[in-house]
Amino acid sequence: MDKIEFNNLKILQQIEYINSQTKKGNSLEYSCKEIGIGKGTLRDRFSKLGYFYSKRIRKYLKNTELPHTVDKPKIQSNTSVSEVVATSEIQGNTGVSKKTKSLNKIMALSDRFDDIQNMLSWFELHKNDLTTIAESDTVTLDTDKFTGGTKITTVRLYKNIQENFKIFCRLYPQFKAMDIMDQALLEYMEKYN
Q: In 10 A of CB 88, how many CB atoms?
């Protein structure tokens, strides 16, 4: 299958096709090269529908289809995290260093639990304010004032300003960088003239 045929499939059909290829023994990377599409493109496209690639079972899964085959240690409710780490190390389980690192991260999070709770509470109180701000700060251009043709010119900018301007332009791909710059200059002149 080539890229055009693949792109003409519905997203769920694309996921089924990739899963069938990995089931046949092809790697995800090989399947992508064969089609002519990047792994990142697939990841972004499929994640929009809530799918992710599980390396362990070599398959795209819906977030609700997480495999439940991981052995969970039996822990009594009064057992501390450090005791679980010590027990795992004594038993000589494989992957102990990974478990230890994960448990250390969990312990670090548990130390900051109150801060995280406060942050989530603050967010719940203010999330409507944040969306209102985002909605009210839409970029509009007064293109009626852009008259007389265009003129090519060179402007020297500080590096950080130029980099931030490029990022800003990527946030609004519906506008040309020239039009954004024209609007900014126009507003500045109207404000201070």
A: 16
Separation between Cα atoms, residue 166 and residue 2, nearest integer Å: 34
Helix axes 96-111, 81-91, angle to 10 degrees: 170
Tell me, what's the pLDDT at 17? 92
135-143 contacts: CB < 8 A, separation 24 or more?
Answer: 139/172, 139/175, 139/180, 141/175, 141/179, 141/180, 141/182, 141/183, 142/183, 142/186, 143/179
Q: What is the pTM of this model?
A: 0.35
How many helices (H) and strands (E) in the chain? Answer: 9, 2
Residue 90 identity:
I
CA–CA distance, 50 with 61 (Å, rounded to integer): 8
d(CA 30, CA 42): 13
